[in-house]
Amino acid sequence: MLDADTVARLTGLTHALRALPQTQSVSSVADLLPRNVVGGEAALALNAMRNTAELQYRVRERISPSGDRLAILVRTGDLGTRRAAEYRDAVAKLSTEHFGPDYETEIVGQWWMAQQGMRLVLGDMLRSLATALLVVIPILWFALSQWRLFIAALVANLVPLMLPLAFMAATGIRVRIGTAVVLAIALGIAVDNTLHIAARLRALSYEHSDSSAHVSIMMEGTGRAVIYTTIALIAGFLSMITNQLLAIRDMGLVAAVTFFGALLADLLLLPAIYVLLMRSRPLIARADPRALG
Question: What domains does the chain contain, in order, with CATH numbers?
Answer without folding.
Answer: 4-108 (no CATH), 115-291 (1.20.1640.10)
